[in-house]
Amino acid sequence: MATIESILRENRVFPPAGEFVRHANIAGIKTYKELCQEAEHDYTGFWAKLAKQYITWHKPFTRILDDTNPPFYKWFDDGELNISWNCLDRHLATQADKTAIIFESDEGKVNHCSYRELHRQVCRFANGLKSLGIRQGDRVVIYMPMRIEAVVAMQACARIGAIHSVVFGGFSAKSVYERIIDAEASAVITADEQTRGGKCHALKATVDKALAMSDTTSVHSVVVFQHTGTDIAWQPERDHWWHDLTARQSDECEPTWINAEHPLFTLYTSGSTGKPKGVQHSSAGYLLGTITSMQWVFDYHADDVFWCTADVGWVTGHSYVTYGPLAIGATQVIFEGIPTYPDAGRFWKIIQKHKVTIFYTAPTAIRSLIKLGPDLPEKYDLSSLRLLGSVGEPINPEAWMWYFTVVGQSRCPVVDTWWQTETGSHIIAPVPGAISTKPGSCTLPLPGIDAAAIDETGQPVKEGKGGFLVIKRPFPSMLRTLWNDPARFKQTYFPADIAGGRYYVAGDSAHRDRDGYFWIMGRIDDVLNVSGHRLGTMEIESALVAHPLVAEAAVVGKPHEIKGEAVVAFVTLREKSPDDQRAAEIAATLREWVAGEIGAIARPEEIRFGENLPKTRSGKIMRRLLRALARGETITQDVSTLENPIILEQLSQTV
Ligand code: WT7
């Protein structure tokens, strides 16, 4: 196999500050290495010890890993527990009055919810679900605004052993419909409307539309949280108000004790191609991954105020809003709105107001905030911050540096966390009190994670060459299967043509530097082949964004007679709509800039400008769509979820 060439060089290194190390959960590289060695020496013993330490079991497990039927692994599979009990009840004896959630609504209203109160709400709602006949193993679709009630709905499902499937509130009726059908869901939990950025969006009406898409349905109940109070259609035999359902319920709800391997949830991930995959997670193994990463990567301390900006519609919102922070008894911020409303200072204002100490967001948000106000963070008091995190895509070194110096005032380590819906929790990420960071690298695997960059035969690729990012041993928080589709699970994640199907194949390409650090180069499907050199998209995009004129960039390949493929770059500028002549000048400048930064091989053949880039609702660039544009093909895919469809027209024009 032709490995992928790595052409980007980044030499800045930031060792952890002494003060940070002194208080860190994993203090110093030696401690980190000892943990890694412990895992290497006794892999299952390592995980078993953590599972006993961090999870409260109803019935302790005696078996650790069952690997008799790969790749269908089981962890702790004769143990019993309840996830909601671990997230709520076990804190009641010691910290019932601690704030679990600081909720800030779109319009800025704030509400503090203690562990006691959250427990009460979850119990009442869980009893309500039971009264509707929902039982262990039933599937429940959740289509909610980003509010405390979304967490309550998920936790209540977990409490009674129902399997939730959260659908992001921005998705269409068709997506809701498809997920209901695939899961054969018994119930849907929703709200009348959601409010984001000062606007209301229908939720219940969308659910009605989804349920009308087929004559027969498995859904017998729809529970509706009244948020805005708008008029909605009502089917009395099917629809129930949240407030009516919970009104006469008890404040206590005996948890349903479930097996460690009982599915906690499914979550659909589109990947870059084909029908969405219903990623199915376990209970205990998943929970353990969220807890260890809260401890190791977020370096959680009892007085932290944690804020992960992700919506519960994504796995980040599952692991680092609904489960991880509650399982360790943290105080966290939940924010209903968007970063740019009422202005681009909203995130900074929230950090200032609630004295957030750990802040976790996505590179796409960081880049858009740089574009809208690079100096804005300086207007706020961000001195409470002590740790910054990034997730969802590769963060290019320039955005990383801005995050580090402007937001974190060069005081807060930046943890660039690589993981996936499928891995459930962080996999490769700096342990901030131990690992020196390098802008653009997710650094080293967490203790107990055996990650590598390999070629098809399973050999590690040479330093500076990219290969398939794989995880060689099963780990507790990994997905168990794809809902109803074990064959696709095996084919997708353990493909026979890569190292004989022995390893979990993430679908990303990565290379390692001389310190063993991982650098993610993009999705394998996105690799370009220019004159026989295989190039990842990430590095060229990074070079473009490093130019002061550029806010965002996406790179794809298009067929080229001589080179095989040529680089086409789609660029969003910091300045507004340059005229044709200026655009042509900038394009020429950028082509030379890329050639200078990383070499002539990567020089874009073509550069196109647009006001923004087409993205999925989770903020990932839709490169497939850009590839079609670059090739001048007509767009056949669904573009209804695009924020701004006009840009497709802009981007189809060559300068
Ligand atoms: C894909 C997974 C991770 C939870 C949210 C997204 C990309 C994610 C990073 C990172 C480089 C990253 C990868 C991965 N990705 N984090 N820190 N550096 N790439 O979950 O939607 O399942 O996406 O996102 O390509 O495979 P997801």
Low-pLDDT residue intervals, each spanning 5 or more residues: none
Give the mean pLDDT.
94
- Widest sheet, order of strands: 13-12-9-7-8-15-16-24
What fraction of residues sit in β-strands? 15-25%
Query: In angstroms, what is the radius of gyration?
Result: 24 Å
Number of strands: 31
Small molecules (ligands, ions, cofactors) in the structure? 5'-O-[(S)-butoxy(hydroxy)phosphoryl]adenosine
Distance between the termini: 36 Å
The number of helical elements comes to 19
Q: Report the principal-axis shape.
A: globular
Structural class: alpha/beta
Biggest beta sheet attributes: 8 strands, mixed
Tell me the helix content. 25-40%
Tell me what you see in this structure:
By secondary structure, this protein is α/β, with parallel strands linked by helices. The chain has 19 helices and 31 strands. The strands form seven sheets. It has an eight-stranded mixed beta sheet with strand order 13-12-9-7-8-15-16-24, sandwiched between helices. Strands 1, 22, 23, 25, 26, 27 and 28 form a seven-stranded mixed beta sheet that branches. A hairpin with a 2-residue loop joins strand 10 and strand 11. The mean pLDDT is 94. It binds 5'-O-[(S)-butoxy(hydroxy)phosphoryl]adenosine. The site of 5'-O-[(S)-butoxy(hydroxy)phosphoryl]adenosine has 21 residues, from helix 11, strand 25 and strand 26.
